[in-house]
Fold these 3 entries.
Entry 1:
Amino acid sequence: MKLSDIAKKLGCEMTGHDVEIARVAGIDEAGEGDLTFVSNRKYISRIKTTGASAIILGKDIPPVDIPSLRTDDPYFAFARALEIFFAPPVPEPGVHPTAVIGEDVILGAGVNIGAYAVIGRGCRIGDETTIYPHTVLYPDVVAGRNCAFHSQVTVREGCRIGDRVILQNGVVVGGDGFGFAPLKDGTFYKILQTGSVIIEDDVEIGANTAIDRAAIGDTIIRKGAKLDNLVQVGHGAEIGENSVLAAQAGLAGSTRLGRGVWVGGQAGFAGHLEAGDGAVIPAQSGTSHDIPAGAIVSGSPAFKNSDWLRSTVAFAKLPEIARRVRELEKELALLKSAISG
């Protein structure tokens, strides 16, 4: 495909001569016929050494020696360019003969159900949704249109899932929350988890993530939220619209995240906490208190990010600071001795 044709599809401005493009590749791996991109300014120096035939760049980047596509958002343009050259695998159409379909199930138009999938009694599956092999839906699950439930997904009884939701391999939606009442003899009594999980439209959930149901009420993942692999969402938690959680993040029960909250990998929340709209919690932060809207916190326990950055510098200097304090104490002792003498 000609670069000029790609420019039209992506709405980019082309500079340099027209070239034939066959693939999209990373800047270090790209060769002849490849289209690459730079969205982070720290990679600008690599433009001189890339073997790519063309590159997607921001409009603020100085002129380069190879043909380029200019745009205000090069990362978004790169994502759309991938769609031009890569077609996802098409699922087997229809219901596979080994799939088990329970009583009173309603399947919308164009639903695809793979081998050995199990669809429980009373489920409702929207149009054009695909259930991949070995996926299990317990009774009375409701799933919307154009969803994709990949292999080994489990959705427990009564959970409700919106339109265009993607559940990657091994996701568990609606498993029992961690609820046990301690008894006087040191044992625990299991609390029945009668709640449900609600996943709204345009949510994507990464592989092996678990979203628990609550004893009462609902665990809710709001519209447009994106969860990475191995995320734990505790019972009764709520994740706000367009929030993003990286791998191994964990939310204890009844945690509330507002809109557009960003949570880094391995960050954790104690239970019954709130993070306001637009809060940012970087990787490995541990929160033990509510976080205001727009705040950036770090550390464990997490506190104001700018203070945490200064603290990490001080931590490295602690041995030297301690040595100097000991020397000052000795000098002060000598001074006191001289004055008293």
Note: The helical segments are 3-10, 74-85, 305-316, 318-340.
Entry 2:
Amino acid sequence: MSDLAHVAEQLTGVLGPALIERKLAVGELTLTVAPDRVLDVLAHLRDDPACEFKILVDICGNDWPGREKRFDVVYHLLSLTKNMRIRVKAMVAEGEAIKSAIALYPAAGWFEREAFDMYGIAFEAHPDLRRILTDYGFSGYPLRKDFPLTGFVELRYDEELKRVVYQPVQLVQEFRDFDFMSPWEGAPHILPGDEKAAMAPNATSGDTGKKP
């Protein structure tokens, strides 16, 4: 049994009802846990001698618009002493908050702000939950599946007003419709430079190309 498989077996008994699902695939262990117990799970993974996942690598979100609990909050943890990685997921609904992990992992501060900025996921008891990648006046959450590709407003510098202004997005041209070819299909035309590969009709494999 691999180390991760052993950890998975142990955690199943320790976490009990807090563990909704476990999945071990391609050398990675993913735990889906109840959102109200996520801090208990993270604390155990950090402090238990058999785990020692003391490094928080990342917190990110995932959007499933058709699901009742629309968002996954995903924690990636690393144990240097055990040389293992683990993924913890908790499902939250739109408008539902999940407890901040800053008390356990101080590095969670900026990661949680990014998840809030990109998905609108709120983290309870976060000391400074505000946008971190977009502008303060930004509308919407860019990584949600239903966010329009053009956005809602654009930010630009107005030369006449001599200041930054916001205005509704206006497209000056239609979207392009690209016709992607299969990589196994050749282009119907000769690309620049390809003509150099064509051999002369009277050339042979032993022809050096030099005149006598």
Note: The chain has a mean pLDDT of 85.
Entry 3:
Amino acid sequence: MRLSELAPKLNATLRGDGSIEVARVAGIDEAGPGDLTFVSNPRYLTKLATTRASAVILSPGIDTPLPSLVCGNPYLAFAHAVTILEPPARPAPGVHATAQVAPDAVLGDGVHVGAYVVVGAGCRVGARTVLRPHVVLYDGVAIGADCELHSGVQVRDGCRLGDRVIVQNGAVIGSDGFGFAKDEAGRYAKIPQRGIVVVEDDVEVGALTAIDRAALNETRIGRGTKLDNLVQIGHSVTIGEDTVLAGQVGVAGSTKIGRRVTLAGQVGVAGHLTIGDGVIASAQTGIPGDVEAGRFVSGTPALDNRAWLKSSAVFSKLPELQKRVRELERQIEELKKR
């Protein structure tokens, strides 16, 4: 594709020879003739002098003799360029001979059902959705259009997925919530989990992630939210739009997480609390209580990020500080005796 054709698709300004042809996107070190590269991090600017790429995506104000596509967010433009130049191959529509599809299930136009897929009674699968091998949809599942469920995904009874949802390998949507009641003898009785999970449009669910169904109503994942691998979402949790949860985040039941929240890796969130819009929690933060909108928290228990940084700088000095305090206390006691 010529740069002059690609520029408007990326909402970028063309600088230099628009007749240059590019066929794929490559990293700045690996790129060769016919490749489009990008610079989104200032540390790579010096590599513009040595790259063999035919053209580059970059921010305004950066000078290079290479033909360029100039835009405010090169990283986002790179993502779009990959989709345009190297669109992913989609399997042909149809149902594999080994798949089991219930007689009353409804499949939209262009749906692909792979080998050994099971589609339960009363399921609805939207147009152009892809079910990779060994996907299992329990009875009554509804999936929107243009979704892709990778191999080993399981979606349990009655759960609903919107349009353009991606679910990576081995994820489970609608597993039973962790609910038990203890009797007088200390034994646990299972609380029936009769609710569902609702996943809104444009959500991505990472590999081996589990989203528990609610006991009575619903667990809901808001539009555009991205869940990394090995994330655990407890029953009756509500997550707002455009929120990001990194690997091994755990959210306990009945918690409400706002819009545009970022929880970094291994953040743990207690149950029955509220995290406001725009909150950021750094890696391994433990959140035991409500967090007001817009805060940046760290540590266990969660503190304001700046307070945590100051505190963590002191931790290694605590033994020496304790020794000094004890010595000062001893000296004060001697002065009192005098």
Note: The chain has a mean pLDDT of 94.
